[in-house]
Amino acid sequence: MDEKTCKIVKLRENSSVPEVVNTGKFQITSDMKAMYDEEGVICVRNLFSKEEIDHILKAITATDEITGKSWGRSDGEGRSVKLALWKHPGNDVTGMVARCKRIVDTCEALLGGEVYHYHTKLMMKDAKTGGKHLWHQDYGYWYKNGMLRPDVLTVFIPLDVCNKTNGGLQVVPGSHKAGRIEHLTVAEQTAANDERVQALCEHFGGKVYTDLQPGDTLFFHSNLLHTSDKNDSDMRRWCFLTAYNRADNDPIYKHHHPNYTPLSKVEDSAILECQNFTDMSGKEFLDPKDYDQHLRLKKSGYH
Length: 303
Hints:
This protein is an alpha+beta fold. It has a single domain, classed as Sandwich (Jelly Rolls). The chain is 23% helix and 26% strand. The chain contains eight helices and 15 strands. It has a nine-stranded mixed sheet. A hairpin with a 5-residue loop joins strand 4 and strand 5. The longest helix is centred in the first third of the chain and has 12 residues. Its cofactor is Fe cation. It comes from Dimorphilus gyrociliatus. It holds the Pfam family PhyH.
């Protein structure tokens, strides 16, 4: 990779979260892959331009096709985490994001093989009301869906400023090395065992608050411990998250997320070229009733 295109730095001087500053056409390198393997997370600054973020927000807010399908999960402290979730990318602007090469190719490089779209979700923490997302590993509950290996990752794209002030993401770099830990149902969320979380925070040097601008992007391992606080600020905090599973890690159970479905990549330019802001056909939004049934089954000890 040409040094003029991207530069590897640290998120902060005292942080072990590696950061890449994107100044051109992004392409992952072996050094970035090594850092991801070591820390379980990598931040790419400026992966999406302001124009692209505005274009994505226009697609989300042009109608209530996405926001109108949102629902909440209680954090057990009087608030809820609000989200909309869909199973397949679709052909609208948000689908171009989930299918673009700068995302999919990076995920394939980090996971070491073909990937497919596991789901996308819009996380909405509105000012003064947004609830906590409790400590967890994504594989802590994806394991229950029949994934045999943690060969799956999340791409976290803030659409607003996302920091400590408005309930931004906290991670424990390196914690993915601990493997999957026990998770329990707390309120309406799946949360990691608190005693083990505290021990792992100490073992791996503590939690890190990420400080992200719209268009910065995190790629993180499915066993990385992470959480986010409630939003008591005057700032909205909306984030766009896509999850990708390796094609040869097809879940052995049918559940509320897709089994292997070939993913049709698009050029990065397709995001701005796409003018479909309203047709959400093919996305298959998750019905919260399906998720509630899933939680009841987990409580009863299925799988």
